[in-house]
Amino acid sequence: MGSRIWSFTSESVAEGHPDKVADLIADRILDAVMEAFPGFPRPRVACEVLVTGSRVILAGETSHGLDDRTVEDTARQAISDAGYGPGDPEFPCDAVEVINLIQPQSQEISDMVVGAEIGAGDQGIIFGFACDETSPLMPLPIHLAHQLARRLAEARRLGIIDYLRPDGKTQVTVEYEGRRPARVTQVVVSAHHQDGVDFRTLREDIEREVIRPVVPADLLGEDSRFLINHSGSFVAGGPAADTGLTGRKLVVDTYGGYGPHGGGALSGKDPTKVDRSASYAARYAAKNLVAAGLARQCSLQLSYVIGMHEPLSLHVDCYGTNTVSLESLERALGAVLSFRPGRMIEDLGLWDIRFSDTTLYGHFGREDAGFAWENTDLAERLRAEALSL
After folding, report:
1. Is 46 exposed, middle or buried (0-12, 13-18, 19+ CB in 10 A)?
2. Are 57 and 50 in contact (CB under 8 A)?
3. HEC profile for the chain?
4. What is the CA radius of gyration of the chain?
5. Which residues pair with 50 in a beta bridge?
6. What are the pLDDT digits (tens) for 253-276?
7. 153 pLDDT exceeds 80?
8. Distance, first Cα to last Cα, the chain
9. Are 148 and 189 in contact (CB under 8 A)?
10. Which residue, among 286, 266, 289, 278, has the nearest Cα to 342 in the 3D structure?
């Protein structure tokens, strides 16, 4: 019997998408607090953002507050960097109303986290994932969707397609033969644009300047479909046309739905929140197991309770692709890695990164960004440990 033929689809979004504008503001506020208060104890932040119409509403909690002017200036700069600069016709960074509702962190939460060793900042179920479909060890559908979204922004920023606006979405369908990605059957691009653009011109420009440079020609066939602005006009976009919320693009942020995620937002949270730090550590672990040749595909789950220093559970699933027993993989992880919140933060250098660098085009698979959780420096140690058990 031949290999099963099946398809999988993932999406990404451009930097001016309303949800990503909200995520970027939240991470910029987090960065601003970290820069303003570099001493011990390190600040705790959980920032939530809503963008809609002509308003930006910030809420959440922090142990170290910023003054309203700094919060407002930080939010406006993030909006500008997302593509909505001063005088923008839809969401001008200099004219939107910024409402700051961030409040002090609950003392009960603070007491559970601060101490001789950092405890988990909340309960949580966390996943990491990796597979051998691409060089960054990410699933091919989300890998290509992110590349398309990045190229769409590049075409706008560089003036390659000079009528593009900041919002947009991409989507890629990959057909598989068994576990092997065989071809790209559909590419969807929805590009925010200025009024008065000829649709035939837009579709030709997007195919030539965005799709063809990204999707490898050997993955395209004569029947591969390009669906470009399939609904027609996309003049009204960004937060002026649709509400954006922090954490609403978790599938985009993680594995495109191909691998599981725990449901907790990543953006706007300091690394004591295991939704963020343990997600990075779990990806680091899964990627190193795959890089070590111990599995072709690996999902790792961790669970935590607030204030506790050790995870409640560790579970590894390799979907039958593992070359040693799952018990050996779990024991090897326990011998080589620590999933204690303080150690994860230290090992991955999470007090020292700019969190807003993670916001766009996924938190995983971006090897050019220098994120420690994308390194495969533990692969040989894990392999040696697993084979010795």
Report:
1. buried
2. yes
3. CCCCEEEEEEEEECCCCHHHHHHHHHHHHHHHHHHHCCCCCCCCEEEEEEEECCEEEEEEEECCCCCHHHHHHHHHHHHHHCCCCCCCCCCCCCCCEEEECCEECCHHHHHHHCCCCCCCCCCEEEEEEEECCCCCCCCHHHHHHHHHHHHHHHHHHCCCCCCEEEEEEEEEEEEEECCEEEEEEEEEEEEEECCCCCHHHHHHHHHHHHHHHHCCHHHEEEEEEEEECCCCCCCCCHHHCCCEECCCCHHHHCCCCCCCCCCCCCCCECCCCHHHHHHHHHHHHHHHHHHCCCCCEEEEEEEECCCCCCCCEEEEECCCCCCCCHHHHHHHHHHHCCCCHHHHHHHCCCCCCCHHHHCCCCCCCCHHHCCHHHCCCCHHHHHHHHHHC
4. 22
5. 57, 245
6. 999 999 999 888 999 999 999 999
7. yes
8. 36
9. yes
10. 278
Q: How many CA atoms lie within 13 A of 348 on its CB side?
A: 31
Q: How confident is the model at residue 314 (pLDDT cuts 50, 70, 90)?
A: very high
CA distance 363 to 347: 17
CA distance 119 to 122: 9
